[in-house]
Amino acid sequence: xxxxxxxxxxxxxxxxxxxxxxxxxxxxxxxxxxxxxxxxxxxxxxxxxxxxxxxxxxxxxxxxxxxxxxxxxxxxxxxxxxxxxxxxxxxxxxxxxxxxxxxxxxxxxxxxxxxxxxxxxxxxxxxxxxxxxxxxxxxxxxxxxxxxxxxxxxxxxxxxxxxxxxxxxxxxxxxxxxxxxxxxxxxxxxxxxxxxxxxxxxxxxxxxxxxxxxxxxxxxxxxxxxxxxxxxxxxxxxxxxxxxxxxxxxxxxxxxxxxxxxxxxxxxxxxxxxxxxxxxxxxxxxxxxxxxxxxxxxxxxxxxxxxxxxxxxxxxxxxxxxxxxxxxxxxxxxxxxxxxxxxxxxxxxxxxx
Length: 353
Ligand SMILES: Cc1ncc(COP(=O)(O)O)c(C=O)c1O
Hints:
By secondary structure, this protein is an alpha/beta fold. It is 31% helix and 23% strand. The chain is built from 11 helices and 17 strands. It is globular, with a radius of gyration of 22 Å. 44% of the residues are buried.
């Protein structure tokens, strides 16, 4: 089967480029302190997670409990939920899941920690915890060293939970276009996290793991860092948002194949809109074609400006954001040049619970 045989829009990934991207990341981290714990949110496909582990990843990061359940079912035995889990029914399930794998979760609230400890005690399981420090993203995480210390101490006191380290993710720098702001911001965060680790040590608390970093900052961590785990996800596929950053370390491995369904001399339209190409981080673009402007609707994307496309032509579109685009598909086709060589079910798509 060839790419041109696929009914569009269809999600395809070049498996040789994926392997190259993974090798590049492993090469960057070779001999460096941090290990790769790649983010599952990018591909949501257990087989891809298992392949990452076979190629040197030390565990998998995910966002949600339902993703962690899929990973554990597939045989992944070291899982980090890089998020807070607070709903009582989910905390109970998480405590059950912790019986069949090493499970770590992020926390930033004392009541949540007590709730996790009680649930894990009930199940006779153990839940590892990273306390999250807000390092500029202003999402989750505590803001002060004092608050951090109180939570770490509580984790050391309560049964069936442990303080395992620091979650410090600077999503605000991941897509920072200005290279020097990205470099300087990353250095400032390193200094802040180092000061925190020192502060805790002086009070008798050891931080074994420091976890975070994205595709946009992982290369900075390879040189010198306090981090022990890199959570980057997108590097495996790449997308327009990272391509526009000028991040040339990794190649674009992911496309959505689309068909031109309408055209005149000044514009043309493809059969994919926001339901097939999520533009939350950046606009998608046709590989090798520069439109003057574009517009995206629910099921259409419109390209304006001179072109040679005609109705029925197939085009390869680079998603604006790979992670949210993959989440729109049931399956991903692996390709080798123009051939479709395999097809995997995206088991965890839509799993946001
Ligand atoms: C907690 C966390 N870690 C890591 C990442 C890095 O992902 P990426 O490399 O895809 O930018 C993200 C991205 O949203 C994240 O939320």
